[in-house]
Amino acid sequence: MVFPILSLVLSGLALLAGLLLNGYIIFVTSCRVERTASTVWFLNRAIADFLFIVCLPFRFIFILNLVRAKILNNTVTSLHMFSSAFLLTALSVDRCILVARPEWGRNHRTPRLAFIIIMGIWALSVGFSLRYGDLWESLLSPASTSINVALHEGRVKGTIVIQFLVGFLIPLALILIPTLYIVLAAKLRRNRLIQSTKPLKILLGLTATFFLYWLPYHVFSFLLISPKYPPSFLVTESNFACVVSYINSCLNPIFYLTMEEQFLSYWQCACNPQTTENSELEMVE
After folding, report:
1. Between these two residues, 23 and 108, which has the higher pLDDT value?
2. What value does the mean pLDDT of the chain take?
3. pLDDT digits over 113-146, tens only?
4. Is the dihedral of CA 199, 216, 9, 65 positive or negative?
5. Which CATH number covers residue 278?
6. Is 82 a residue whose pLDDT tops 80?
7. Tally of CA atoms within 13 A in the half-sphere of 251 that contains its CB
8. CA 87 – CA 68 distance, rounded (Å)
């Protein structure tokens, strides 16, 4: 009984905080700051988090067992997981290019190129997530039996392995490689573009929170197909692991608002209109 109540409380807090914070990020990046490659990344990451949070009421319905909203909920969850992992990977590569090839970055790192890459990421995320809509329909049902599991055993196991590799392990490896390069370059002070460690801190914060908060989801995914743990026994725990992943969507905007220069400059301008001109020059730089 503890997990359902805690899940509802965390879901309510995540819904309120996630909508406000991500909505504010979308508003600022869309209307109030200069459009750059970085703001395009942050905008789409905030959109992914916002859409994920908007569908949180379906998680309430799922927990309360009032309506079968599993297909939509699972599809949105998978879409958010894949899009977040792919966007984080692209962001880490983008930061690495700024450090390794600053001249190429200044000449070719445009909002248009970032937009094209992001459209490809969204298409890839949708393609992967559509096949997960009914993944847990038989496994997460309280009426699930060993026969139901056996009928879908091959498909479910293969799907979970692909989900773990494509949505978690491979992105983690692809993110760590450029991140370690950036950390080493930052320590050696090889480039003036990384004299400020805030972009590195944002990347490290986003990466750490994503993988830490999504790790329970993947752990319970493997436990659900384990013969030692009946699916009906892990329904509540797996739901709680999914709810924990929503907290990640509330933490991401905090990193943007407290560390990203463009958001800090906009906030200073909003608080002190007299500094607007100077702040705009800083954002352009």
Report:
1. 23
2. 77
3. 999 999 999 999 998 888 765 555 545 454 444 4
4. positive
5. 1.20.1070.10
6. yes
7. 17
8. 30
What are the distances in angstroms from CA 282 to CA 15, 98, 262, 277? 34, 18, 8, 9
**What residues make up the domain containing 181?**
2-284
Instruction: Residue 139: name the closest of 210, 225, 208 by CA.
Output: 225
Q: Which residues contact 98 (CB under 8 A, 6 or more apart)?
A: 105, 109, 193, 194, 199
- Give dist(CA 238, CA 233) in Å, integer: 10
Identify whether the C-beta of residue 166 lies closer than 8 Å to the C-beta of residue 82: yes
Rounded-to-integer distance, Cα 173 and Cα 145, Å: 37
> What pTM, to 2 d.p., does this model score?
0.82
For residue 266, pLDDT over 70 is answered with yes
Residues contacting 149, CB < 8 A, separation 6+: 138, 139, 156, 225, 231
Give the Cα separation of 200 and 203 in Å (integer).
5
d(CA 102, CA 162): 35
What is the pLDDT, as a whole number, of residue 195? 54
Which residues make Cβ contacts (< 8 Å) with residue 221, sequence separation at least 6?
160, 163, 164, 238
Q: What integer pLDDT is reported at residue 271 of this predicted model?
A: 72
Domains contained in the chain, number: 1
Is the per-residue pLDDT at 54 higher than 60?
Answer: yes
If you count them, how many residues does the chain have? Answer: 285
Q: Report CA 106 to chain centroid distance, whole Å.
A: 27
CB atoms within 10 A of CB 265: 20
Query: Backbone dihedral region of 38: left (phi > 0), alpha (psi from -120 to 50 degrees) or beta?
Result: alpha
Binned at pLDDT 50, 70 and 90, residue 189 comes out as low
For residue 177, give every residue at least 6 positions away whose Cβ sits within 8 Å of its Cβ, in sequence order, or none.
none
Residues 32-48: pLDDT tens digits?
A: 888 888 889 999 999 99
